[in-house]
Design a protein that fits this description.
212 residues; alpha/beta; TIM Barrel; 11 helices; 8 strands; globular
């Protein structure tokens, strides 16, 4: 199963931004115990390629985010990233991802940027910052782009994740609500599992409502 399939099934990516990660593999295990199988480490985190390497070698499905250049894309893939994420439309990152055979989630906000991301070969389009426009914006984007996989990122928590999913996002990014920097730095894996479970329970509640 590839990363995009996992994304569609689980509907959540955990996005880690922390000044210190004592054990990347243990962090991924804690998230998986709470129902989140995809972890995105970002280039804003020190030694990110080493964290990618350790987690991927342990068998976890990890990606790298805040990718701005082709060089970063190549370094991330070499370290074990199975998907790439950008904050905006980055043509050189899209090209590097295609060359490596790795899916890329390109960032966008406006309808024009969504179209640009699709033209660049995005496997999914990350709408960022999602909180600024709210869940209803995803319903609006679904009008002209009914088949584009949209991912909500920025300001998503257990209290609003279901709304974004219910309005058309195929998945959401769980940031500090699930992986606060202080808990990551302290290696408080039980707390991260608890937060991940709370978040995924909220997403599952959305699916239950859609099925009823």
């Amino acid at each position: 199963m590839n990363s995009l399939s996992v994304l569609r099934d689980d509907r959540v990516i955990a996005v880690v931004r922390a000044p210190r990660i004592p054990d990347a593999s243990a962090l991924c295990a804690a998230l998986a115990a709470g129902g989140i199988r995809l972890t995105e480490f970002t280039y804003t985190t020190p030694e990110v390629t080493e964290h990618l390497r350790r987690a991927s070698q342990a068998g976890w499905r990890v990606g790298v985010g805040t990718v701005l250049t082709a060089e970063q894309a190549e370094q991330g893939v070499a370290a074990g990233a199975s998907f790439l994420v950008t904050p905006g439309c980055r043509p050189e990152v899209a090209e590097a991802a295609q060359a490596a055979g790795v899916p890329v989630v390109l960032g966008a906000l406006t309808p024009t940027e969504v179209a640009r991301a699709v033209d660049l070969g995005a496997a999914a389009v990350k709408i960022f910052p999602a909180r600024a426009f709210g869940p209803g914006y995803f319903k609006d984007l679904r009008g002209p782009y009914p088949d584009v996989p949209l991912v909500a990122s920025g300001g998503i928590d257990a209290g609003n994740a279901a709304e974004f999913l219910g309005q058309g996002a195929i998945a959401v990014c769980a940031g500090t609500d699930v992986v606060p920097a202080e808990a990551v730095a302290a290696g408080d894996w039980a707390e991260i599992t608890r937060r991940a479970r709370k978040f995924t329970d909220a997403c599952e509640a959305c699916e239950a409502c859609e099925a009823s």
